TrEMBL record:
Belongs to the VTI1 family. It is a single-pass type IV membrane protein; Single-pass membrane protein. GO terms for biological process: Golgi to vacuole transport; intra-Golgi vesicle-mediated transport; intracellular protein transport; macroautophagy; retrograde transport, endosome to Golgi; vesicle fusion with Golgi apparatus. This is Vesicle transport through interaction with t-SNAREs homolog 1A. InterPro entries: SNARE, T_SNARE_dom, v-SNARE_N_sf, Vesicle_trsprt_v-SNARE_N. Keywords: Coiled coil, Golgi apparatus, Membrane, Protein transport, Transmembrane, Transmembrane helix, Transport. It is found in: Endomembrane system; Golgi apparatus membrane.
Length: 187
């Protein structure tokens, strides 16, 4: 069974190398050549996904005692696949930016200025998000402290009420004692 898996591994390695090479060529091509290269990369990515599915099926068939090694290899292949897809997406974005610039007649500087502006805005947004998160954490901590204080005040109130009740009882007992002593003095 591991022979099939290793065969799939070799196929995946060759395919991922081809995809990487083609992804690198996408930004350098123009027109129909670029469209054709994008279509080819999409087909190869689909083939790579199918190979990963086959490899995953093979891993399920491997006995449990040796499955761990193959599972970790599968995770690394999936990560590599994710990287390939992200690289392809970036190259397609660059491709679509170039097509947009060609259609709109934009030059590269305005695109670079827009990207710099977007990066600045993204950084500001991230800083604001971090500040909001810190503020939220402080609010949560403050709420917890407030809850603890309310509980402490509630306990203190109960103690004061018990002490007041004892004082009333003591006052009542003192009143009785005073009446008894007054009665004894009269006799």
């Amino acid at each position: 069974m591991s022979a099939d898996f290793e065969s799939y591994e070799q196929d995946f390695a060759v395919l991922s190398a081809e995809i990487t090479a083609r992804i690198g060529k996408v930004p350098k091509l123009v027109g129909d050549e670029k469209k054709q290269m994008v279509a080819n990369v999409e087909k190869q990515l689909e083939e790579a996904r199918e190979l990963l599915e086959q490899m995953e099926l093979e891993v399920r068939e491997i006995p449990p005692q040796s499955r761990g090694m193959y599972s970790s290899r599968m995770r690394s292949y999936k990560q590599e696949m994710g990287k390939l897809e992200a690289d392809f997406k970036r190259s397609r974005i660059a491709y679509s930016d170039e097509v947009r610039n060609e259609l709109l007649g934009d030059d590269g500087n305005s695109s670079e200025n827009q990207r710099a502006h977007l990066l600045d805005n993204t950084e500001r947004l991230e800083r604001s998000s971090r500040r909001l998160e810190a503020g939220y954490q402080i609010a949560v901590e403050t709420e917890q402290i407030g809850q603890e204080m309310l509980e402490n005040l509630s306990h203190d109130r109960e103690k004061i009420q018990r002490a007041r009740e004892r004082l009333r009882e003591t006052d009542a007992n003192l009143g009785k004692s005073s009446r008894i002593l007054t009665g004894m003095l009269r006799r």
